[in-house]
Amino acid sequence: xxxxxxxxxxxxxxxxxxxxxxxxxxxxxxxxxxxxxxxxxxxxxxxxxxxxxxxxxxxxxxxxxxxxxxxxxxxxxxxxxxxxxxxxxxxxxxxxxxxxxxxxxxxxxxxxxxxxxxxxxxxxxxxxxxxxxxxxxxxxxxxxxxxxxxxxxxxxxxxxxxxxxxxxxxxxxxxxxxxxxxxxxxxxxxxxxxxxxxxxxxxxxxxxxxxxxxxxxxxxxxxxxx
Length: 226
Prior knowledge:
Largest sheet: 11 strands, mixed
Distance between the termini: 24 Å
Number of helices: 4
């Protein structure tokens, strides 16, 4: 648990598990939501989604009124989200803004998101935090909330997320190195936004250290930027 109050919970989602039940009916996070009632009559609900292989900040509303309020914040683009990714290669410039439109493409039994003028607007801002050995450490701030947006945008820059099974390099056999690092929720009008940061997951620590990440430096600096 990263944060809890009367309206919202923010949990640290592990990589490798979906947030809700899928066609395979395997383990999923919602199965354990009844354990997160903390005295309320019903379990919390998902305010947004993270991909199965993405770790980090996941926001839950503790009751229907809270979920409606959170839903409006996400829909209106008022939630500040920060992702960290380890990617193959490097972007053409050290920071920038990606703007295009994404469309869901279904083929056979699978699907993926593609850049298509008929799709929905998708905007992500990025900057390089470190580079070495043919990889880069990116900070990404999605300004819209499209499915697989960050992953598609990294691939479109020519530097797919390491371990991405859909948009990454073929034949990679390692966990996907994408982490929902931090989130800010302007939930209470008379109070500062709720700011939550998720620690770097164990499967990303070694890769980030090679790119300049330091636990000591992290403790001295704030991740969220106004």
